[in-house]
Amino acid sequence: MQTSWIPFVPPSASTLSGKVDALYFYLSGVTIFFTLLISGVLIFFVIKYRRRNPYEIPRPVAGSIKLETLWSVIPFIIAMTMFAWGAQIFFEQSRPPSNAVEVYVVGKQWMWKIQHTTGQREINELHVPVGRRIKLVMGTEDVIHDFFIPAFRIKADVVPGRYTTLWFEATKAGRYHLFCAEYCGMNHSGMIGSVVAMEPKDFDEWLSGSSSQQSPAVAGQQIYETLGCASCHGPAGEGRRGPALVGVFAKQVFLNNGQSIKADEAYIRESIVNPQAKLVAGFGPIMPTFQGQVSEEQLMQILAFIKSLQVQTPGPVMAASPVPTPSGVPSAAPAASSTPRTGP
Amino acid sequence: MAESYVEHEASHPALQHHFENLEQQREAGTLGMWVFLVTEIMFFGGMFLAYTLYRSKFPEAFAIASNHLDIKLGAINTAVLILSSFTMAMAVYSTQVGKLRAQIIYLVLTIVLGLAFLGIKGVEYHEKYVDHLIPGTLIPGNPFNPDPHAMHLTQGVLMQHVQMFYWIYFAMTGMHALHMIIGVGLLSVILYFSVKGRYSPEYHNPVEVAGLYWHFVDIVWIFLFPLLYLLGRHLGGH
Amino acid sequence: METFVPPVPSRINYINAQYGLKSWLLTKDHKRIALLYLGSISFFFFIGGLYAMAIRLELLTPQADLLQSTTYNKVFTQHGIIMVFFFLIPSIPATLGNFLVPMMIGAKDLAFPRINLLSWYIYMLGGIVTIYALLAGGVDTGWTFYTPFSTTFSNSYVVATGLGIFINGFSSILTGLNFIVTIHTMRAPGMTWFRLPLFIWAHYATSLIMILGTPVIAITILLLAFERVAHIGIFDPAVGGDPVLFQHLFWFYSHPAVYIMVLPGMGIISELIANFSRKNIFGYSFVAFSSLAIAVFGFLVWGHHLFVASQSVYAGMIFSFLSFAVAIPSAIKVFNWTATLYKASISYDTPMLYALGFIGLFTIGGMTGLFLAALAVDVHLSDTYFVVAHFHYIMVGGTLLAYLGGLHYWWPKITGRMYPEGWGRFSALVVFIGFNLTFLPQFILGYMGMPRRYHVYPAEFQVLHVLSTAGASILGVGLLIPLFYLMWSMRYGKVAPGNPWHLPGLEWRTQSPPPTENFDYTPVVTWEAYEFAPPEETEVVGKFHDKVPEKA
């Protein structure tokens, strides 16, 4: 939906924004219609039936079941069209396509730390190519934040202790606002930045121009080695006393309580910080918790490493390959840690 | 549109000026207590919700923590409260039929049983204090720090999830104990007026209403006892 | 209408029955307690209004010039806490409701007068604790107290403020309890459920929410305080807790609380529309039951505050569906009010102007709620100025306008004096214009992406913010005018007769101000609600006038 000529509408720059705008205009239309209808009728009655002499008593009126039904059913039907339309777009918006390129986002009072799978790091800026589906995997190191890109009509809370995701496909190159939309303390209104959507060619240029650091998968592998994960899960994640990690991501895992679960981001995160919560069938509760030993960012890097341990590399990947290469590059990952303050 | 007006009947000394008659006053008092008890259910409801959520999240830790509670004292307390509900009901009945001596005796018994419950609860709390089971840093100088061995902590269960159980335990039983204290206070006031001979078969609503409250507090305990004490029986007692 | 004013004999009434501070502070008379509440909520409204002014002034420019971030965060938090917990929730029930519920059903007082007085003391205690917290250093968590910010990260007086709100909650519970019992057991002979004025139905529905919802916020705040003091981990994911549990518990109360604020307003509007058009309400039972429907459905929609808070997609859909459903009873009310005016005899007195303004603004407020119930649009709009505009349309355009309308309508009954009509109409107009200018631009700001709780913002939003601040200053003036003329009228206003508007309601069938026991004799009701007069008696408009019954 082309909306750039309409005043008071933010730039529309994703595949989703036009759809949200269409529903918004429908809602606005219905609202304006009913507001005008009711105020019109109200003003008409108020003038037509004004009190003409202080003695008049109008004839009392009995209600009308027909009218009551009419003005209950019609608004209900209109409301249901809004519900269905809104739910349909929402459903699409909350299901990230499987072939999306991932970007890792960590919120922290009061900045957004972003890392691409190719290793580029950004703070309060997110560069993305136009026409490609991007999936943001988001966590936070302290309080609840919210990643909000008005031009794409998307936002999602970033909640401590879990991962949330957002996905979009930019349609128009440009620089757009990025806001934190969940109040997060003193400098909340400073937790802003930009999303830069670029033509693919410009984006590739930007990728090669910006200093590419270790990819998250490689950094994750180093953490994996440093923390001694390899002693149980095997140096290449092939599994020893602990379950194998190769190819585990997004697969069903059988648990020792007889249930099975999809090994998604949330499950892997939980298995690192609270390993005993859902044990894989056939393995004892021998893994210690790594809560407090790894930052949110490092968790995401380990996650990226585990994701990279695929039998075959699926999906399109951005410029560089996320498949880990044994490297001796010193870790550049700044293990940012937050120290919660306590008040009176 | 005729208008007419109703006159006051000759009034009982206990009839408050804004009520038409004792029947209306009694109805209002009883309904008032029922409405109040509904708010109490919602108040405890928030904690039951938290209990449900975290118990389903950490079943093993809850079983282990529950197993460490003193089931004997809990069971004795349950019996004490059920008995006190009986004596309370008898106190109301005695008032209604005009046996005022029995009314006073039953009220005293109810209060004594209530105090006994609180005493036993105090003993239990003290045990938890000694075992460093008071959650968080609620008691300065005695943070949550139980001996994992004494808790029979199985491998893989985190102590912080055991603590989850204990804050719910203390929040719920603490709130319940607070209600017991208020109940004992309420009954003491009722007892005072009984001794002064205020209640009669015509006017006994305060005794009834206090009874409703007392039974409610007992019922809350009837829910708390199995939910808190009986989770870890399969693990074997100690 | 002046022709009907007879000389009013100076009689004993609830105001001159007793003198002295003690007679007020220890009163058990629901009318005096209503006045105690009126004074105290006006005080809190004034404080909240000062905060609002500070917010709007800061937002004049995109930079932080008037307030720095720490101050601004406290200012908007305290604006919300004071306005929601200490003005909006008690506003109509505790003042007009307290005064009128017994009078409208023909009772001498509420069922539990001592509990009624206790509720005012609890309210004041909660207020004092909160004011203490504000003076000691304030609180900066937002009125929503989201964890883990409020439990671990905030450096402000969270526990003290929470304690104030916790205490205040009991005043709300006791008021609701009192109303429910009174409406059930104290109706005058002949006052059947379907003869009750709609104001009473609205208060009954409101009381249900008060007794069912308020205990939940009480326990929620208690847990929050425990978590903050002892770091137990209730809402802390680091030890297995869930921060989103807090949001569920919080909104389980705080969404229905919106209906605590607006339902009594709707009750007032039903009274005003019927009485100032001399017409019985179109579809009385639909309007009555829609209040109950709102109270019940109101408890099932809290999850629409969590559409973007990592709630599951399916939970989102259910809550979205239910939120659309709760819009229907509100729509029924609006249509019935409008239909009531058909072939009516409409006067343009101040209360009626407020009522008409309410219907218009409530329509906008309600319809914009649909935007926020529609999942995909809410994702874009949540936590933006659109939300701010929406709930101000409900709370200010709805509750505050209804409150002012009701205050003017019953002012002669409460004080025995008329307010100056010309000033009343003028200020109603100023409030209406100022309000729209303040909050209409905020809808647009919201869709353009301006997040709430920002004091520094991109420059492109400034024009709309300037408009909004301009509107706020008009609104502020519009609200100050009644403050002055109402106080003036208490002493110098025209003496009001018992029934200045010539209405059939029970509260008008006694003198103004009423005697301590409201009626000289317990009335027997033989008429339906809003039964103005049979057609053959149309000429006796003033028939209820100051009718002091003869002793039978």
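qc> Chain A touches chain C through 91 residues (CB under 8 Å).
qc> done
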